[in-house]
Amino acid sequence: MRANAESILEVRDLVKHFPLTQGVVVKRQIGAIKAVDGVSFDLHRGETLGVVGESGCGKSTLAKLLMALERPTSGSVRVNGKDITAARGAELKRMRRNIQMVMQDPYTSLNPRMTVGDIVGEPFEIHSDVVPKEGRRRRVQELLEVVGLNPDHINRYPHQFSGGQRQRIGIARGLALQPEIIICDEPVSALDVSIQAQVMNLLERLQNEFDLAYIFIAHDLSVVRHISDRVAVMYLGKIVELGSDAEIYDAPTHPYTQALLSAVPVPDPDGRDRRQRIILQGDPPSPANPPSGCHFRTRCWKAQDICAEQTPALEVRPGSDHPSACHFAEARDVVNAQ
Amino acid sequence: MTEVLSEQTGRGAHSGALLEVDNLHVEFRTRAGVAKAVNGVTYSVDAGETLAVLGESGSGKSVTAQTIMGILDMPPGKITGGEIRFRGVDLLKLPEDQRRKIRGESVSMIFQDALSSLNPVFPVGWQIAEMFRMHRGSSRSDAKKKAVELMDRVRIPAAKDRVNDFPHQFSGGMRQRIMIAMAIALDPEILIADEPTTALDVTVQAQIMGLLAELQRDSNMGLILITHDLGVVADVADKIAVMYGGRIVENAPVHDLYKTPAHPYSKGLLESIPRVDQKGQELYAIKGLPPNLLEMPPGCAFHPRCPYRRDNCVTEVPPLYTISGTRGSACHYWREVIDEGER
Ligand SMILES: Nc1ncnc2c1ncn2[C@@H]1O[C@H](COP(=O)(O)OP(=O)(O)OP(=O)(O)O)[C@@H](O)[C@H]1O
Ligand SMILES: Nc1ncnc2c1ncn2[C@@H]1O[C@H](COP(=O)(O)OP(=O)(O)O)[C@@H](O)[C@H]1O
Ligand code: SF4
Ligand code: SF4
Ligand SMILES: [Mg+2]
Ligand SMILES: [Mg+2]
Known about the structure:
The structure holds two protein chains of two kinds.
Chain A: E1 7-22, E2 28-44, E3 48-52, H1 59-66, E4 74-79, E5 82-83, H2 89-96, E6 99-102, H3 116-126, H4 136-146, H5 163-175, E7 181-185, H6 193-210, E8 213-217, H7 221-227, E9 230-235, E10 238-244, H8 245-250, H9 255-263, H10 305-309, E11 315-316, E12 323-324
Parallel strand pairs in A: 3-8, 3-9, 6-7, 7-8
Antiparallel strand pairs in A: 1-2, 1-4, 4-5, 9-10, 11-12
Helix pairs in contact in A: 3-4, 3-5, 4-5, 5-6
Chain B: H1 3-9, E1 19-30, E2 33-45, E3 50-54, H2 61-69, E4 77-86, E5 89-90, H3 96-105, E6 107-110, H4 114-117, H5 124-136, H6 140-153, H7 159-162, H8 172-184, E7 190-194, H9 202-219, E8 222-227, H10 230-236, E9 239-244, E10 247-253, H11 254-259, H12 264-271, E11 321-324, E12 327-329, H13 334-340
Parallel strand pairs in B: 3-8, 3-9, 6-7, 7-8
Antiparallel strand pairs in B: 1-2, 1-4, 4-5, 9-10, 10-12, 11-12
Helix pairs in contact in B: 5-6, 6-8, 8-9
The complex binds adenosine-5'-triphosphate, adenosine-5'-diphosphate (ADP), iron/sulfur cluster (2 copies) and magnesium ion (2 copies).
Residues 264, 300, 302-303, 306, 308-309, 313, 318, 331-333 of chain B line the site of one iron/sulfur cluster.
């Protein structure tokens, strides 16, 4: 999992605003949902970048932008130096080969009428030059074996597999075109605890074997910590803090990160009465109408006048060595604090 | 509370816990065969106590809860054995009208999916008020006033202005609060919460769990919290019942279970939690898959996945062995598991 510093993905000022329309016959745009609102980061070869944040903060939209399944409103996504958002036609097709995705829901993301062999082999139909037709069945069986499924089950249908096994089918398909980057959107969230560990181990083994880089989106913060080299914390379409797993978990500087971490229940009953909790009030505001200045200010206990006036940039601030988007960033260990 | 029961038992006269599930068996008859969803579940909860029922999906947690509440789908479901005693009286043997009264008022339940449990075509305030009109015969205006009070109590901001809003106008966390408001409306003695926060963000989960704990403290309710989250359990439970393949495989006070699990399945679950000091290492993973209820493995249902298995595990169903007055394990080799388990 050791990451070398070569960037294979460079994301700059990425913005996706969905138009908010009114009227049935004549649609008028009355605003925009700012799903992704200025996101920048790099992903290095062989590295895992975890992405965490509350529901609706823009994680899946970000994933779709990186895959070029959505067109951004503005900004760029460079894959090995080339901007995928500007690519079209054959070039886009070729670039997409390099970024694959594993989805959250192993029950709905696989076509129930296709056999496992067809599902895993489908990318070869689209990119027919990768493996010659005669070799495909064999290659699919190899892929099944790589993810720990029985290659003899190639003719079975998804409903004949458990959730964990279906997730393996999704992973085998993601590996088919030998991508350098795999985006995992909540890959283990729908799985039982005892099966989660199996799939996590598989993802780590494949990363080492094929030098894959992962974007790992999840809401389980202990799972993210286990697998990630670096972690990005998102709030209302923006990254508010970005650092190594130890920086984010042991010395978070953004109040939102601190609240998020302190809300995670610790699986150890010892000392539970002494544990400090930062309980945020209310829900995140609507991304159609985010607060001025710092988006977090309506739930932040440290907010001052300046927070409504100036948007804090994501930058390294005094007293810390990783970037944070808070005017008053200050390290605080909320996980080990008692 | 129900006069019915006070008449029959004298309030608090019996010696057991407030609610006791005793050797409950439930099956589903389906086209594919008979699914033994609940195969001898025994647990109990007292006033002011929190029992966490822990287990993976399909282990029978919800079916047990639905049977307690009398909302099991019958058919295909069928209760084939056991008792559910409230204040010592077996609910399964009570006449329908008395049973319904207890289940509506003294024992209530909140569900995982608040959106589909609320009626989309009625305002939430009306739905809460309906509880008072139906069960207490309150007047329309009185019931509405109480609904606003309850919405306040579960911290819906500006409750008075939102009482006429519809479910879809609330966020997931707020809908779950509305469900809680309905569940506590009639001051139940037992509240069953079936995965109340599974669909919610951790920040909202913390709000909801805090709210439940506070309500429980105020009214001394017994709480049955059904979950698969080992973190939530560690945070709030007094005692734990671990379910696997429709059975309780271990029960224990919370500290004992986390410190020295007495069943290989509970032990495996605890070991598969990612820990900070194990970063970069392979996670411990329980091998194999949960059992198929249509063809349960013979002997101990966990044996195909168990690292402690011996020959007799394949043939002899382990009873729930008593370890102490408050602990039990359905494993022939629980001693070995405990001895090895000092973590
Ligand atoms: N096609 C679309 N049209 C309009 N709004 C959209 C669209 N897709 C997403 N959104 C909105 O953009 C915001 C971000 O959504 P997104 O799915 O990226 O969230 P997320 O972080 O993945 O959340 P979750 O944790 O629930 O999966 C939400 O407010 C969502 O409702
Ligand atoms: N109405 C039903 N008909 C048939 N099978 C059912 C029905 N309800 C539940 N089951 C089965 O009973 C078993 C236990 O389910 P459940 O109690 O919901 O599990 P959980 O522990 O996840 O709450 C599962 O195998 C489930 O498929
Ligand atoms: S910038 Fe202000 S409102 Fe935003 S997180 Fe920092 S202190 Fe809170
Ligand atoms: S009875 Fe045997 S198979 Fe079952 S849990 Fe104990 S050791 Fe394992
Ligand atoms: Mg998403
Ligand atoms: Mg359930």
